[in-house]
């Protein structure tokens, strides 16, 4: 709240040129205003000094009431009564002339003035408030030009207020964004469209082990060699332009200084609101520290490896003992005893399979899962594998169809045992999660570069919201957990690892309730 002293009364009627001069003076003052008080002061002083008004009130409309936010020549002691009278005027989007005989006479009485005009300050047809210009001169007579001039001044005032408030919002949003950026646990590096480093948050400064001042303005190819961490991060990334089409994610970088840390680095081209086709305005690098996650994964892998190895011996002993009972080597069993022994044997076999999966996972993660590659005729290999599964399909009352479109004599270089494990895992899932009476269809084909093996079923399918996790360790979709409670969730992780070790790919399409098709590709040997 600001209140300026009253100004001396000056004649009210102004020639047109004088009005224009007054308007120019007020606009000039408004352009230099940097806050709301400066705007209101410029308007009030201009109206008093150049246009002969004795006092000014500026109000702000808040919901259905009017608050006096600035005054010149009016005592603050009158504000309470004036607010009531201003409210009674029922001001709208049009200027209102007040006089002692009609509208607003109580306002004139309270302010000891003879006439006044209330002009709305509007933004996009919304009333912000009013400029109430009052005169204590008896001979003051408003002309049409005076009201039009006040309307122009009110419009210019609205524009200035809008600019100030917009700038204030920008600063507030900037401060908020800056606060968020500085508090992020991820490091952020921002490069402009010329690939110059313009921003680094505190976490990035810590990760890179350097203050922003030392590297501000550098481009990726001008980073000095002593900036080892930053240099290593930049060298791990492709050229910035590669991210124009799609973000580059998931690049792992291990830093040694000032201590060992593992980062997951991503690079994204930033654009304005107009969309994907716009030229990038800059490039954002995000540094996500995954050191702890890596340590936990390592600890889990070591535990699984040790536990699995320790379990193999007792499970093998249990299997040997149970087989002796099953074969009658330890004497004849009653039918009830045979039933219990058979159930125990099946459960033990399931435990052995789980331990084998866990051991394979450990070996995959440690990079020590051995592969022995050899050249084989593709049709013979796949045919024998699928022949072995006919009994399993019949046991589940499923139709198993195989279509071999591979040219005769086509050879592939594979690890027969490991690839068999991968394909068998996919087939086992198809058998387990396809209801009786359903179909499992296998189709083998080639193109000039690779073999395709498609395994389709009419089973339960994969829910859309879980498709991105399907190759994760220990993951089982919610719908199959309800259908089949047993399972480790390791099979497809192993499948993906084995196929990728063969330099192939594994993908799938699925619709919940309508089945799944897995496609495995294995490259053909290059012709010499």
Could you explain how this protein is built, in words?
With 528 residues, the protein is an alpha+beta fold. The protein folds into four domains: 2-169, GAF domain (Beta-Lactamase), CATH 3.30.450.40; 186-289, PAS domain (Beta-Lactamase); 294-350, no CATH class; 374-523, Heat Shock Protein 90. Helix content is 42%, strand content 23%. It contains 14 helices and 18 strands. Strands 1-3-2-6-5-4 form a six-stranded mixed sheet, with helices on both faces. A five-stranded antiparallel sheet has the order 8-7-11-10-9, sandwiched between helices. Strand 7 and strand 8 (197-200) form a beta hairpin. Helix 8 runs antiparallel to helix 9 (335-366). Residues 5-14 have low confidence and may be disordered.
List keywords for this structure.
elongated, 14 helices, alpha+beta, Beta-Lactamase, 18 strands, 528 residues, 6-stranded mixed beta sheet, 42% helix
Shape: elongated
The main sheet comes to: 6 strands, mixed
Can you identify the CATH class of the largest domain? Alpha Beta
- Give the amount of beta strand, in percent: 15-25%
Alpha-carbon distance between the termini? 89 Å
Number of domains: 4
What is the total tally of β strands?
18
Which architecture name of the largest domain does CATH use?
2-Layer Sandwich
Helix content: 40-55%
CATH superfamily of the largest domain: GAF domain
- The value of Rg in angstroms is 41 Å
Low-confidence stretches: 5-14
The overall pLDDT average reads 85
Helix and strand content put the structural class at alpha+beta
Summed up, the helix count is 14
Tell me the CATH topology of the largest domain.
Answer: Beta-Lactamase
Strands ordered across the widest β-sheet:
1-3-2-6-5-4
